[in-house]
Amino acid sequence: MSENAPNKTTRRPDWAALVIAAGLAIVAAVIVWSTANQSGTASYARIGPTTFPYVIAGALFVLSLWTAVEAWRGDFPEREQQEISPILWIVGGLAAQMLLLKTAGFSIATGLLFAATARAFGRGPLWKTIPLGIVLAFVVWFIFAKGLQLSLPAGPLEQLF
């Protein structure tokens, strides 16, 4: 009788998940330090304004330990290959919006963000999505600026109204 035991492959530690675990532990430590150094907190109550941050920090620390153990054992599923192009389109759209918001106004800047995000998701050519995004952003600007009397950056298009 031959032994046909399944071949168990040993996986190496997942270094990206270990970095995430370290980040969670650092965030938990910062919350604890910040809460401990707060001034002006009332000490007459057992449960006061510092209780909830400590609970959050404790939960983050437990998640950090759990993530580290799972990463060290290699129990995380294999991740798919990341596509950098969509990320660059979205980040570029956000950068364009931030740079153009005061000069071009809300509608044009947000329309460009809409078009870049649509391109990142593989939808429509830019010659279609830029005007569509500008129109949709203008409707949003009109509702907020005129209907709700909120202040949004106005550019040349918004100055017409």
From TrEMBL:
One Pfam family linked to the record: TctB
InterPro entries per record: DUF1468
Transmembrane spans: 15-35, 47-67, 87-114, 126-144
Keyword Membrane: yes
Keywords: Membrane, Transmembrane, Transmembrane helix
Protein's UniProt keywords contain Membrane: yes
DUF1468 domain segment(s): 19-153
Protein name as it appears in the record: C4-dicarboxylate ABC transporter
Gene source species: Mesorhizobium hungaricum
